[in-house]
Input
Amino acid sequence: MESDQLSAFKARQRELWALFAPTATFTTPVAAQLVRFADVSPGETILDVGTGTGVVAVTAARAGARATGIDLTPALLEHARENARIAGADVSWVEGDAENLPFADASFDVVLSQFGHMFAPRPEVAVAELRRVLKPNGRVAFATWPPELLVGQTFALIGRYGPPMPPGIAPPSLWGDEAVVAHRLARAFGEPVFERGIMMVPALSLGHYRSFIERNIGPIQKLVESLSSEPERLGALRRDFDAVSERYYADNLVRQEYLFTRAAAG
Output
């Protein structure tokens, strides 16, 4: 990928995810599970990559870790600072890129990422950076969306209805495929450990769920906006979205299943 294309892609990512903050209500319980899965201990130094509104970094800090959160989107870091203030958590916040982490080698005991690093366009670069900033006995743990389940299928819908991805960019949902993850980590980490979990999103109907997603998930919001002059195509997207979501919806809850991965530095 050319450097200009890469810069433009990252600038668009920075803009797209600025709307994400309301979704943190639902990712907050997952953050606690991720911190527990990573076995974060008091006094450890942790880096939360793609911190968003800071729910993982704040959770780790409240568990006694010395936490740093980094994100590409300044608007989300403002939410993270406010969350830390309200929670009484001491966290260092940094604006930056998962593919170019502004930290010295071997700076952290644990690197975490909750639905964050998976959006870095070049997985091999992101993995090298995660490993570089880890101490020799450190570990990485992250949450991602499997491609065959609801959120992964939603990514596929975006791909079908939206413009093609620039060449050289890997689909983020591949980070939810255990075989792909094991292959990507193999050179820098030991054998990964996997665990599955479920995030529940309240909704009064499928339309209610879709409306929330259209307002708060940047790639969907921009896609809907781009199709506003094509009502038939927009209607088809919404029907397909509801069809994908229907099997995961019951009792006013939408079930979003995710994958946890943990691996020790190799």
